[in-house]
Structure formats: structure tokens, C-alpha cells
Fold this sequence. Notes:
By secondary structure, the chain is α+β, with helices and mostly antiparallel strands. It has helices at 10-20, 26-32, 47-53, 117-132; strands at 2-4, 40-45, 61-67, 70-77, 80-87, 92-95, 100-104, 109-113. The protein has a single domain, classed as PH-domain like (Roll), CATH 2.30.29.30. The chain has an eight-stranded antiparallel sheet with strand order 1-5-4-3-2-8-7-6. It is globular. The N and C termini lie far apart (31 Å). 24% of the residues are buried.
Amino acid sequence: MLVNVSYNNPEITNKVDKAVGKPFKLKERWAMGGIGSPKLFITEASMEIRNLLILDNNLDSCNVELRPKGIIVRFRSLLETFALVIPYHKLSIYKGQAAVHSLYTAHHFIKVRTDTEAIRKFFRKMMDYKADNAPTSIEDL
């Protein structure tokens, strides 16, 4: 789900919290070594996201926040902040080219440059957390 989170709107906040869970407590964040990604540079995006990004001339960048049941990808366009909310069961992560990772959901995708060790370490943490907290699949029974 793609939403504008620039303003404090309790309805949107509740919708996001229902989809991906409330933010981690401070103690959990500390134990995980942080829940936010470094600055990620967008190389490609789905049409709806691309239409938002081309409205200004700034460098296209985003960041990812881990939540208990999903992730939130935040980016800015024209002084507005947008969030792509992706529950873990709808999230697909692909490593395409040498230094590009792709985050896919049903109707949207974002490809980001992963050319530093810190970014690759964050993606590993995100994939491990997703695997550890995924529901038991039918093949595992």
C-alpha cells in the first residue's frame, strides 16, 4: 500500500500499524542493532512510484524501516513523504545485478543500489528477520 505520511493522520497510522505492526520498542531496537537502513539510492521503480519521484529534480533516495510484521519504504517527493508499506508475506526480495536489490510487492517494486557493506548487511538482517518470523509453511509440516 502506498500512502502519503507527511501529516499526522491517525487513520493512516492505524492502517499502517495494522498492516506491519507497531514500531519495535527501544530495547528490541537496541538488541537488533537498529531497525533502519542507511540511505538507499533508487535505480528503478514501478510506474506509480516513478511518477511521484520525477516531480522534483532531487536525487531519488529512500530508506527502509523494519517492523514486526513487515517493512516500510519511505521516500520524499515535492516536500511530501510517501511510504510503501509491505507486509512480510507479500514481500519478495531479489538480487539482480551485481549491486542492485529489488523489493517487490503485489503492484509496486523498488530497485536500490547496494554497493556498500553496510547496505548489504542491512538487507541480510532484513531477510533473516523475515525468515525467522514467517509462518510455518505447508512444506515444513
